[in-house]
Description:
alpha+beta; two-stranded antiparallel sheet; 5 helices; elongated
Amino acid sequence: LTRTLTREENVESCKENLHEGLSIIAQRAINLTDFVNSYKQITLLPEPQKQQVSIANLVNKVIPLYPNNKITVSSPKDVALNIDPIQFEQVLINLFKNAVESMQSISSTGEVNVSWQVIHNQFKLTISDEGTGISNVDNLFVPFYTTKKHGSGIGLVFCRQVLEVHQGQL
């Protein structure tokens, strides 16, 4: 673009090329900003602010974010966990989003089921859906790898990081 402007040509004749070039630069700047922000999100996980949290309350707080989907809870007994509620809420949001998107990709009107249990003092949360499943397990936790058209590839990486900081696993 600089060369085009420095030539002794009529700027009006290259106006379309200049607009197109500036548009490409602007889009790349936006994409780079999104990339940096995504990278910061998975590299700068704040220290968890743990407190006793009802898992039932936390799950029930996230379910309304998906009003067009059937999400059911099949655990009758509540469990209090010593966790960071903000970080865990984001984990639930990411996992519910993946479950819902998995079903939408096959035009399914399926159901997402959430359940939990405590076995030998270990809490286990299960989120299951009737969607397509995971297409590439090998790249499941590779940062920025995604099979979704508008995905960032950090959702599951973030979830795993949060759970590991809480001595858990995904």
